[in-house]
Amino acid sequence: MIQAGVTLAQARLALPLDALENRILLCHALRLPRVALITQSERELTLEEAVRLNGLVERRLAGEPIAYIVGEREFFGLPFKVTPAVLIPRPDTELLVELALERLAPQQRLLDMGTGSGAIAVAAAHTRPDLAVTALDVSDDALAIARTNAAANGARVHFVRSDWFAGLGDDRFDLIASNPPYIVAGDAHLSEGDLRFEPVDALTDHADGLSDLRTIVDGAGAHLATGGWLLLEHGYDQAGAVRALLTARGYSDVQSWRDLAGIERVSGGRRDA
User: Fold this and answer.
1) I need a labelling partner for 192 at 20 to 30 A (CA). Which of 44, 46, 75, 185 fits?
2) What total of structural domains would you count in the chain?
């Protein structure tokens, strides 16, 4: 336990986490920017600061994700507010954003399905203000957080409460992107690491891991403009199955793309008619 009176330098060395997590929690507990850990290294912690820091460290040692403890995670170079109501944005999903932006011409329309924190929609709208971006989610709590993130990052996004396509009417888009629940029910990973703290309905479809992906592939054609793309993030071993779903529905240019770890992480295809 960190005691009042220790210096920032001493606290940083004494904390039981890895160096990055020590720094993040120390900055958060003391409400200091990173540079202050250097410029104020001999500053002593007050009792209140020590108590607050120890509380944060205890939460992390119990397994709670850093992002939920500090309430924020960076994605696509932007800060995103996160709470246990939404998934923590992950670097793997940046591939989905990059692929979408590459395929969208000026002024085109993007739909982000199951937006959660708003990471995909906000990142796209911030990077390309010319786009007309719509984001949907069935969770009111998630939509509230996504709206906050859009406002904080100056991104223009239209939000819709919808259970997949149910609330879209006849709207059509030039590209639909989604990172839906795709973990198989009962998968051991759901009870390990950060996933223990994340919203289970955003992680698993409570079935074979493909049911929500099927729903999106089956329904997307009615909401895609001719030549529009459907891009889906999926599990490490699901690329072949998702390509088969897209091919069966008549999509062309069906392919998968690998993330930085070399895993086929996103699959997609184009609607020709």
Assistant:
1) 75
2) 2
